[in-house]
Amino acid sequence: MPDSELDPSKRISFIGGGNMGQAIIGGLLANGYPAKNITVSEPNEAARTHLEKTFGVLTTSKNEEAVAFTAGSSQRDGKGVGADLVMLAVKPQIMRDVALAMAVSVQKYKPVVVTIAAGIVLKDLARWLTSDAQGKALDDAAPPRLVRVMPNTPALVLEGAAGLYATSEVSEEQKSLAFNVLSAVSKAAYWVDREELLDVVTAVSGSGPAYFFLMVEALAKSGIELGLPSEIAYGLARQTCLGAGKMLVDTAEDPADLRRKVTSPGGTTHAAVESFEANGLRKIINDAVVAATRRGEALGKEFSQVRTN
Questions:
Q1: Phi, psi of 244 (to 5 degrees)
Q2: What is the pLDDT of residues 112-144, one digit of tens each?
């Protein structure tokens, strides 16, 4: 795993200032990263104002300025020093157009480009970042340095989990930079050695929060049906989910061992676990994870087919 120290001199640009981008910026600043070394490209003027006031970062409406790191050019003479890392935090539906428009700048400054967009495979992103705005291949274009990341929504509260994959063009230093930026909001981050494994990461941790929300929803509903007031049922279910998760993380014990410790033979937990097993809970979960993985694979193919030049 790369060094956990994030070099505060590195220049980081975000293309898109939505929720996930803001979460990562907030995590960086909370860890002492200087706002002067963060630029955000955001087309919405009100959003740019919010970003400036909330985080004190530089903003621009032009993606090429973010890549060149010339936002606030009065401080940098406007010549462009180039971002060290460019985070693509835009919706997958507009990724092709965004990438094509900034390809020339990426070729000039050669940052590591990190994408957090679901369903966009790196072979497509590489093609767009070596083409002009009309989709025609650029002369003498070099393969871009790309990292694809699958974060999850707990990153919004600095408790995320993420999987990362890098192309061979990415240096160890760039991998470390990408990893450390994501670690600002992800308590667990792991490199995978094949891009297709990010579909499995998506199924386990990307979609995973929804599985736990559903469990809490069902657990609380059962409590209500058995007579508990709604406030109490949901309060108990929420805190139980949080407490169990904290035990898993803080003790680092095997989940099966933790389960056995609270499952006394013939007791209430034993009765519940036996009911889960009899009703095929493990198969239900496995089928769900497989379904999410297959859907992730299909989305990648759909986006690739729609956006093939």
A1: -65, -40
A2: 999 999 889 999 999 999 998 888 999 999 999
